[in-house]
From TrEMBL:
Belongs to the peptidase S46 family. SUPFAM superfamilies: Trypsin-like serine proteases (SSF50494). This is Dipeptidyl-peptidase. InterPro entries: Pep_S46, Peptidase_S1_PA, Peptidase_S1_PA_chymotrypsin. Catalyzes the removal of dipeptides from the N-terminus of oligopeptides. It comes from the Bacteria. It comes from Chryseobacterium taihuense. Gene3D superfamilies: Trypsin-like serine proteases. The keyword Signal applies. Residues 1-20 form the signal peptide. Keywords: Aminopeptidase, Hydrolase, Protease, Serine protease, Signal. Its EC number is 3.4.14.-.
Length: 713
């Protein structure tokens, strides 16, 4: 029965979603499938989305601070992005007395908006394919000469382009180095915080609901771009004026219907859709499980402490959230790869390609051999990297090893030392040495148990017992200088960095004989000798074959329209508003409502508390124009748009290019879309514009912001 349902569902989707979209699609905005988009319901043209000759939608979409996406929604440079994208800025304006994370923040007028030094937004002014220029003279080159020549060609290309002094050019590799595209970028540097709901709205559901549908998070915050008096980029100045955009997005509060056309415009970070079956199998059965296992241990140990101690909870909140985010994603990814039969699907695809082009069989055979050869090294690499990343004490030792290497090579000047000290200070601020001694002890036991004998550092065979490790490592940690629990030059590194650094020679001498440092260096040196060189050299060979396999897929599969893997460049993905049936007897609706927020409400809970004001609005049903046909306020919705990390904050637009939602997540059953998009289960999750406006208007009483926007009713 399940099988039959799946068959029916996939036939239905490939019909209703169109041929190109069966693999998802993150399209370069200058190469859109206009016809398919129109067939799906789009009422505007590709030229309305991206145009260098006149204002188009791309003029309202920016990369926010190098990671997320944001969009302009008023003629005065008002910017919308996710709460989790603006989190760092909201946090940086917060104090215990004035906690903007807990209470939210709403500027009363422009002069009370808050500056954020260092925060930038990037506009894409132009996109050009520049493959011939970049690959010129590379025909017969192998690595490492190939990369050097490409880098030189990129430099030459950049020098020959005439751009304004407030613009820059970035050249990006696509299709694993088979093509290259140049982006002209304009970076604005005065970006001020305008508004953010309290966490109990902006982060409602927190880690429990993360990656999960049905979702009820109001994950948005607002900023404003400021410019100099000529509307050009400028460093922060109180004399700057609100940026006047070439285009801003009208905000729609129309009801949504299943199958409505929608597209998402933003900066997806990284996907790997064109891997061979063997690579997917390795991720699914070895690499992801290794990373998950390490984070399982780290998260569980932190959680025990965070639940009983408030100071630790606050200190580790942000770190915990970021470790938990990908931990949870990988678990969903493995499940989804299994359920979507990704490995077999890829194998079938390889066979069908090889039947048309026998050269592909040779490529796949070579790739298979390389992955088999690399497997033990790749597994050790996965454990080593994850353990060092999550055992903060080992991470500290790693940071110090870099410092000592630079110092001994005579490469450290005053400035270098100052910035190193700054880095350390920010590390120690959120580091609980005693708690991490436990995490590190457990992770060392895991490493000792999971590492094959040929990669096991001398003496690590004795670290396999977790409980014994906890006792032993606590002693090492207590006697260590780098943990800050033992003094050097008469001071603790975590309490008085300047004093601990007062005699640098002595500091380095002490660190070198520090028991924790010695243990880490033993681990590192063994890894660097027994695994890293082989891992890297095999990876270089795999990369070269992956480039070849990519080119072969493109020249052999003529019916398929290819899009390049995400690489943090501007893309358009499109699809339809849609629910899903991810499991037997389970059906998801495409829309959630405020009533669902109240269903999840747990008074005083750190994830599911609801602000009193919102409860009052709910009780009075004071919804104004923001309710939908059900009489309730829509909160979130899902669609078939193919998105990934970096798409957070991206605008979701309707057939006419009006804003209908704010992308912020994907549903768990479909997160394998980074490797194998499956139209049956892959859904992106957005906050409904009606909920955003409802919160701004009714909850925050900030009608002045609504008045700036163009509302489409
Ligand atoms: N999963 C979303 C993304 O990958 C949201 C992450 C932020 N929220 C959280 N609870 N950690 O970024
Ligand atoms: N939450 C992700 C982001 O921050 C989006 C995703 O992975 O779907 O970009």
């Amino acid at each position: 029965m399940i099988k039959r349902n799946i068959l029916i569902a996939s036939a239905f989707f490939s019909f209703s979603l169109g041929i190109a979209q069966q693999y998802g699609g993150m399209w370069i905005p200058t190469e859109l499938n206009e016809k398919e988009m129109k067939d799906l319901g789009m009422k505007i043209s590709a030229k309305d989305i991206f145009n260098t000759q006149k204002p188009s939608i791309k003029d309202a979409v920016v990369q926010f601070n190098g990671g997320c996406t944001a969009e302009i929604i008023s003629p005065k440079g008002l910017l919308l992005t996710n709460h989790h994208c603006g989190y760092g800025q909201i946090q940086s304006h917060s104090t215990v007395q004035n906690d903007l994370l807990s209470n939210g923040f709403w500027a009363k007028n422009m002069s009370s908006e808050l500056p954020n030094p260092g925060v930038t937004v990037d506009f894409i002014v132009d996109i050009k394919e520049v493959t011939p220029q970049i690959l010129q003279g590379t025909e017969n080159l192998q690595e490492p000469e190939l990369s050097k020549k490409i880098a030189a060609n990129i430099e030459t290309y950049k020098k020959t382009q005439k751009i304004e002094d407030y613009q820059s050019i970035s050249v990006k590799s696509m299709y694993y180095g088979n093509k290259f595209y140049a982006y002209v970028i304009e970076t604005y540097k005065d970006v001020r915080l305008v508004g953010a709901p309290p966490q109990s709205i902006g982060k409602f559901g927190s880690d429990t609901d993360n990656w999960v549908w049905p979702r009820h998070t109001g994950d948005f915050s607002m900023f404003r771009i400021y410019a100099d008096k000529n509307n050009k980029p400028a460093e922060y100045s109180k004399d700057n004026i609100p940026y006047v955009p070439k285009h801003y997005l009208p905000v729609s509060i129309k009801d949504k219907n299943e199958n409505d056309f929608t597209f998402v415009f933003g900066f997806p970070g990284r996907t790997t859709e064109y891997l061979p079956a063997i690579a997917v199998e390795k991720i699914m059965t070895e690499i992801d499980p290794a990373r998950i296992a390490v984070r399982d241990v780290a998260l569980k140990t932190l959680d025990e402490k965070m639940r009983t101690d408030d100071a630790t909870r606050i200190q580790y909140a942000s770190k915990y959230a970021s470790v938990a985010n990908y931990w949870k994603k990988w678990i969903g990814e493995v499940e989804g790869l299994k359920k979507s039969n990704a490995v077999q699907k890829k194998k079938n695809y390889e066979n069908s390609l090889a039947a048309k082009n026998p050269a592909i069989k040779t490529t796949i055979d070579q790739i298979n051999k390389l992955y088999a050869d690399q497997a033990p090294f790749a597994l050790n690499n996965a454990y080593y990297s994850e353990v060092v990343r999550n055992a903060e004490t080992l991470m500290l030792a790693n940071i110090f090893s870099g410092f000592i290497a630079s110092a001994e090579a005579g490469k450290l000047d005053e400035k270098g030392i100052a910035s190193f000290k700054k880095r350390l200070a920010s590390f120690y601020k959120d580091y609980n040495a005693e708690l991490d001694a436990k995490v590190t002890a457990k992770l060392l036991a895991l490493y000792a148990n999971k590492t094959a004998p040929q990669f096991l550092p001398a003496g690590f065979a004795e670290l396999k017992d977790e409980n014994q490790n906890i006792i032993n490592f606590e002693k090492l940690s207590k006697n260590s200088v780098i943990t800050g629990r033992s003094n050097v030059n008469g001071a603790s590194l975590s309490e008085n960095i300047d004093k601990a650094f007062s005699n640098q020679e002595n500091l380095i001498k002490s660190i070198k004989k520090d028991p924790v440092y010695e243990l880490f260096m033993n681990m590192r040196n063994t890894y660097m000798k027994s695994a890293d060189p082989q891992f890297t050299s095999l990876q270089t060979q795999i990369d070269a074959l992956q480039k070849k396999y990519m080119a072969q897929q493109m020249e052999t599969d003529k019916d398929r329209k290819f899009f390049p893997d995400a690489n943090s460049t501007l893309r358009v993905t499109y699809g339809q508003v849609k629910g899903s049936s991810p499991r037997d007897a389970v059906t998801y609706d495409y829309q959630t409502h405020l009533a669902g927020v109240m269903e999840k409400y747990v008074p005083g809970d750190y994830e599911f508390d609801v602000p009193q004001k919102l409860i009052d609005l709910y009780n009075k049903k004071d919804y104004g124009i923001y309710k939908d046909k059900t009489g309730d306020v829509p909160v979130g919705f899902t669609a078939t748009n193919h998105t990934t990390g970096g798409n957070s904050g991206s605008p979701a637009l309707d057939a006419k290019g009006n804003l209908i939602g704010l992308n912020f997540d994907r549903q768990w059953e479909g997160t394998m879309s980074d490797i194998n998009y499956d139209p049956r289960f892959s859904r992106n999750i957005m906050v409904d514009t009606k909920y955003i406006l409802f919160i701004i208007d009714k909850f925050a009483n900030s009608k002045w912001l609504i008045d700036e926007m163009k509302i489409v009713k």
